[in-house]
Amino acid sequence: NIIRVIEESESQVQPLKGKKVLITAGPTKESVDAVRYFTNHSSGKMGYALAEEAKKLGADVTLVSGPVHLKAIAGINTIKVSTAQEMYQAVLENFDTQDIVIKSAAVADYKPKYQMDQKMKKKEGPLTLELERTQDILKTIGLKKTHQYVVGFAAETDNILHYGREKLSKKNLDAIVVNDIGNKEIGFQSDQNEVYVLTQKGEEFSISTRSKQEISKKLFDIFINDMMGESE
Amino acid sequence: NIIRVIEESESQVQPLKGKKVLITAGPTKESVDAVRYFTNHSSGKMGYALAEEAKKLGADVTLVSGPVHLKAIAGINTIKVSTAQEMYQAVLENFDTQDIVIKSAAVADYKPKYQMDQKMKKKEGPLTLELERTQDILKTIGLKKTHQYVVGFAAETDNILHYGREKLSKKNLDAIVVNDIGNKEIGFQSDQNEVYVLTQKGEEFSISTRSKQEISKKLFDIFINDMMGESE
């Protein structure tokens, strides 16, 4: 009996002991002027749940977090950022030493081309705002990766698996987690989620609706199995 | 001694007993697509502090609140809205019966002309976003008002009193509260504020840095005195 208990706790715990895991979470804010900004509906809950799970599994966790209303997690190195550019820098500065990088943040793809320090005065009639692309973090680390296992997220409203597969391949990821954000019951802001996972090796998993904590457990099962398979 | 205590509590309490006060608070969110939106840095703290103070003063309070991360206040009729258009409707539907209307919300002046239900696919290179003006709540109620005492807020980064006076007159307000948002120590997101108050009668007040609760007390002192003066 005692042997069985020990075996169980051994097998349960700490498969990521000695591993470094970097997770990004939340939205970014892109300023138009001193008052106005662009952002998105990400709450950061999925990323924070993943960070907490990685810590439970024994990893040395770095969490790069956009502006969210969530409590910091004790024992996790949290780097708070605001813009896509700041998130890019925080990820790149910490990338080389990581074993697993999970990019669950909803980083702005576009930012205003001109940003005013003052408050823009409103005028009568319409206004045209010029936007430019932000630096693509996932593409950059997909090109740069050596030993790192890199996971991306895709939030899609239609043809979700099609776009997921395309992103997995284009960004040179090891795995991608696809969210159906057309379904209002789950995803952004919600405590629950339902996702698909596609791996570079061609495996596909479906994880039905459950808490973001439970989703995180399943995701790490998949990633760890997939990584172990790599070394065989 | 007993008489003195009674006098004090009489003078402290309930000058707004039987009065209806509507307060708007927080930012609005204007969607670009299923994921992205435009908003601003308003936390709603000033408006919620005003609503709480109005309740203490005996008023029947309606709070029209944009998306904020603040607890609802017990005993206050709170109407939650998301967009500028929803805030416009909630204010207009409740306007006629009010005695005091304080528009502390930071309502978006512009919204995307086209809003997509699906998630817009990103492309290489820049993007132009067409924005159009939202309906001007303050201007509408300034024109519509009969007996109501209407207070606006102005968040400015430069020439703050100049723009404040201009807005007071253009929007036909009874008073305007001017915030210097160029000063990072105060205002948006902060628990403290420092404001100027300009009245239609030409009075100017400066309230130095203190908590938003304390600012609210001072503001109601000014508004109530100003309203009483009107009936002389």
Quick summary of this structure?
Two copies of one chain form a homodimer. With 232 residues, chain A is of the alpha/beta class. Helices cover 31% and strands 29% of the residues of chain A.
Across the major sheet of chain A, the strand order is 5-4-1-6-9-10-11-12
Regions with little confidence, pLDDT below 50 for 5+ residues of chain A: none
Largest sheet of chain A: 8 strands, mixed
User: Largest chain-chain contact?
Assistant: A-B, 36 and 36 residues
Fourth CATH level, the homologous superfamily of chain A: CoaB-like
SSE layout and pairings?
The structure is a homodimer of 232-residue chains.
Chain A: H1 2-12, E1 20-25, E2 30-31, E3 36-40, H2 45-56, E4 60-65, E5 77-80, H3 84-95, E6 100-103, E7 110-112, E8 127-133, H4 137-144, E9 149-156, H5 160-170, E10 175-180, E11 192-199, E12 204-211, H6 212-230
Structural notes for this entry:
2 copies of one chain form a homodimer. The first copy, chain A, is of the alpha/beta class and 232 residues long. Chain A has 6 helices and 12 strands. The first copy, chain A, has helices at 2-12, 45-56, 84-95, 137-144, 160-170, 212-230, and strands spanning 20-25, 30-31, 36-40, 60-65, 77-80, 100-103, 110-112, 127-133, 149-156, 175-180, 192-199, 204-211. In chain A, a hairpin with a 4-residue loop joins strand 2 (30-31) and strand 3. In chain A, helix 2 crosses helix 6 (212-230). The longest helix of chain A is centred in the last third of the chain and has 19 residues, at 212-230. At the A-B interface, strand 3 and strand 8 of A face strand 3 and strand 8 of B. Strand 8 (127-133) of chain A pairs antiparallel with strand 8 (127-133) of chain B, so a sheet runs across the interface.
